[in-house]
Amino acid sequence: MKGIILAGGSGTRLSPSTDSMNKHLLAVYDKPMIYYPLSVLMLGGIKEIMIISTAQDRPRFEELLGDGSELGITIVYEEQHEPKGIPEALLIGESFVGDDDVTLILGDNIFYGQGFTSLFRKALQNNEYATVFGYRVKDPERFGVVEFDDGMNVLSLEEKPSEPKSDFAVTGLYIYDQQAAKFARKLSFSDRGELEITDVNKQYLKKNQLKVQLLGRGFAWMDAGTHDALFEASEFVKNIQDRQGFKLACLEEIAFYMGYISKEMLQKKGNDMKKTDYGQYLLEIASRKHNRQYWDDINQHPVLGLVNNE
Questions:
Q1: What's the start-to-end Cα distance of the chain, in Å?
Q2: Helices (H) and strands (E) in the chain, counts
Q3: Which partner from 11, 115, 193, 198 sits 20 to 30 angstroms from 86, CA to CA?
Q4: What is the CATH number of domain 2-227?
Q5: Using CA atoms, how far apart are residues 104 and 127, in angstroms rounded to an integer?
Q6: What is the distance between the alpha carbons of residues 212 and 193, in angstroms, rounded to a whole number?
């Protein structure tokens, strides 16, 4: 399984904040926005990841994350020369994905919830063709809407329908088999002048190959693509971290508990940032005595949990 993060676009909804900076490099409370989707892929066990950004912003992502070796993963970069829609990421990343399956996540989407990691990993393991993630919203007419049966088989997909057939929106997280790029290549531009990811999903639907995984009560899904949404996401992250004492989407912590990096690597990163709360947090993790009970606690944590203790 390969991973792709789409972090291109023009960020016009966040102007003027994004007039000189890619929105995915803006802070969501105490870390760059790109950390959140990257943490999802890492927690899913995906170690080969492509980040797609603009030509202007690519060097900034490379400076921030490098080749991924400090996290024990591999990160490569490609450019989206102009925003032509989400499916273009499948075309840009086609040679990178090769014969593997791929998880595509949007760079401004944030996921949180008890057991999310276990749910995501099971979805990866059980995916046959394509899986989308549905989240209940109070205003489904603003989103792409998925209708499904009791077996989680998708019955219909509609983009911003005036009369929605369900109140579940399709989030910016998609799992695809090797057909995805082929389907994306068949697309025509919509009235918005973009390729639509809904049209890729509809091609899977026509072949009865599309399933939905629901994010139920207790889960949070945020699209930090507007000023209000960015502020709300930052406030949410701050509140969770202040109450629980854990940091959300701390890449070095995830890499350490996944066994991707050593304690020495974690300590070095912490020392490099020791004047910050983030660096002190890494040093505190490195100093802990990791007994079995603590490991079990980590497994149950909504952001760091690796597997179900079944």
A1: 24
A2: 12, 13
A3: 115
A4: 3.90.550.10
A5: 14
A6: 27
Pull the structure tokens for residue 135.
Answer: 């989240």
The string of DSSP codes covering 5-65 is EE--S--GGGTTTTSSS-GGGSEETTEETTHHHHHHHHHTT--EEEEEE-TTTHHHHHHHH
Q: What is the DSSP letter of 170?
A: E
DSSP string, 246-266: PPTT-HHHHHHHTTSS-HHHH
How do the domains of the chain map onto residue ranges?
2-227
Instruction: Provide CB contacts within 8 A for 204, sequence distance 6+.
Output: 129, 130, 176, 179, 183, 210
- Kindly tell me if the per-residue pLDDT of 37 is higher than 50: yes
CB 76 within 8 A of CB 96: yes
Provide the 8-state DSSP code for 72: T
Residues 236-290 pLDDT 10s: 999 999 999 999 999 999 999 899 999 999 999 999 999 999 999 999 999 987 5
**How far is residue 187's CA from residue 213's CA, in Å, rounded to a whole number?**
25
**169: helix, strand or coil:** strand
**Strand partners for 49:** 3, 75
Report the alpha-carbon angle 32-67-10, nearest 5: 45
pLDDT in tens, 181-200: 999 999 999 988 899 999 99
